[in-house]
């Protein structure tokens, strides 16, 4: 598989630059219109690198199938060792995250602050074991560090924290804030005439938060075509199924009405995920949402669609059973 590490290397950190929020708040309406106008220009100057897509689709699907089984084993193992965590939403999200890092994102583990990298924001921060597993696999830090999840002094806290392990782009976990952060980064890229994309994964329970819809309106108004949201539509949250807590349908119609282009896919079908990300990268003057229909606890039979596993750690016996199902050898 090709790597993305042969691109020009940089040392300037995007996160070290002055925050964009202040100037945007104080901006005059004419300046904000200029932002929207510029959004239409980025598609003309953007030079996308599609990532390591030279292998056949069947090869990529086979690679992701094997990779994600291993990542799922890492997820349940680190949560079991910690004695706490969120396996359900981590297992539902890992297929989309792994597909992004393997075949879509412009990123460089050896230079995580590369200014022209694509950004990934895990807005549903409690699913961070999935992101940690992926980052470790791609070399952002040693895989052995996964066993320190949620321990005192560990860099791997229960929700993402900027400045801990490389590859974390935003502090999240207080649900509803990540899309606003991603929209700010997207606007920053437009103003700086950069070609990077910003990807933001949302939880479906999370989009019951009002701030999500404020950010969605902003992204449509300013034509943030470099902003791509992925909804982990596992239909569950801490209090139960979303349809019982706060129904979300008609979901696609709502986002479409807010000015987004929307595509709904099977979030565990790697061919559909690859196709949807290719669609999302084609800039067309508006933000895009991929609704990834998933199963909470995917891959571990006794966790699937059981809301009790939203935030519970498996014991030793349950871990052994999960690892056998995932094709991994119990320790």
List keywords for this structure.
single chain, 11 helices, alpha/beta, globular, 331 residues
Q: Please give the radius of gyration in angstroms.
A: 19 Å
Low-confidence stretches: 1-33, 38-51
Q: Which structural class is indicated by helix and strand composition?
A: alpha/beta
Through-space gap between termini: 30 Å
Sketch the topology as an H/E string, one letter per element.
Answer: HHHHEHHEHEEEHHEHEH
Q: Mean pLDDT, as a whole number?
A: 87
Percent of residues in helices: 40-55%
The DSSP helix count reads 11
What overall form do the CA principal axes indicate? globular
Largest sheet: 5 strands, parallel
The main sheet orders its strands as: 1-2-3-7-6
Got a strand count?
7
Strand content: 5-15%
Write structural notes for this entry.
The chain has 331 residues and is of the alpha/beta class. Helix content is 40%, strand content 10%. It is built from eleven helices and seven strands. It has helices at residues 21-26, 29-45, 57-82, 87-103, 128-137, 178-191, 210-221, 242-245, 251-257, 270-280, 316-325, and strands spanning 119-122, 198-203, 227-233, 236-237, 240-241, 261-266, 288-293. A five-stranded parallel β-sheet has the order 1-2-3-7-6, sandwiched between helices. A two-stranded antiparallel sheet has the order 4-5. β2 (198-203), α7 and β3 (227-233) form a beta-alpha-beta unit. α3 packs antiparallel against α11 (316-325), α4 (87-103) packs across α10 (270-280) and α6 runs parallel beside α7 (210-221). It starts with 20 loop residues before the first helix and ends in a 6-residue tail after the last helix.
């Amino acid at each position: 598989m090709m790597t993305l590490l042969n691109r020009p290397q940089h040392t300037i950190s995007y996160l070290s630059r002055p925050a964009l929020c202040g100037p945007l708040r104080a901006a005059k309406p004419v300046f904000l219109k200029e932002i929207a106008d510029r959004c239409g220009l980025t598609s003309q100057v953007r030079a996308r690198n599609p990532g390591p897509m030279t292998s056949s689709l069947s090869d990529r699907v086979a690679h992701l199938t094997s990779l994600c089984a291993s990542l799922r084993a890492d997820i349940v193992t680190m949560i079991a060792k910690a004695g706490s965590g969120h396996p359900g939403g981590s297992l539902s999200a890992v297929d989309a995250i792994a597909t992004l890092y393997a075949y879509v994102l412009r990123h460089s583990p050896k230079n995580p602050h590369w200014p022209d990298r694509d950004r990934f924001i895990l807005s549903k921060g409690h699913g961070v074991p999935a992101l940690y597993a992926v980052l470790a696999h791609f070399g952002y830090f040693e895989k052995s560090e996964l066993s320190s999840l949620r321990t005192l002094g560990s860099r791997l806290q229960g929700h993402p924290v900027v400045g801990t392990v490389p590859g974390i782009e935003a502090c999240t976990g207080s649900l509803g804030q990540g899309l606003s952060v991603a929209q700010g980064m997207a606007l920053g890229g437009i103003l700086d005439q950069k070609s990077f994309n910003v990807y933001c994964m949302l939880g479906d329970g999370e989009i019951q938060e009002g701030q999500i819809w404020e950010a969605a309106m902003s992204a449509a108004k300013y034509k943030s075509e470099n902003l791509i949201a992925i909804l982990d539509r596992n239909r569950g949250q801490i209090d139960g199924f979303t349809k019982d807590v706060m129904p979300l349908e008609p979901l696609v119609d709502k986002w479409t009405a807010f000015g987004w282009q929307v595509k709904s896919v099977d979030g565990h079908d790697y061919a559909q995920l690859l196709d949807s990300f290719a669609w999302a990268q084609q800039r067309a003057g508006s933000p895009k949402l991929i609704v990834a229909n998933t199963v909470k606890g995917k891959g571990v039979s006794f966790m699937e669609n059981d809301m009790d596993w939203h935030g519970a750690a498996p014991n030793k016996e349950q871990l052994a059973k999960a690892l056998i199902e995932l094709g991994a050898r119990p320790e």
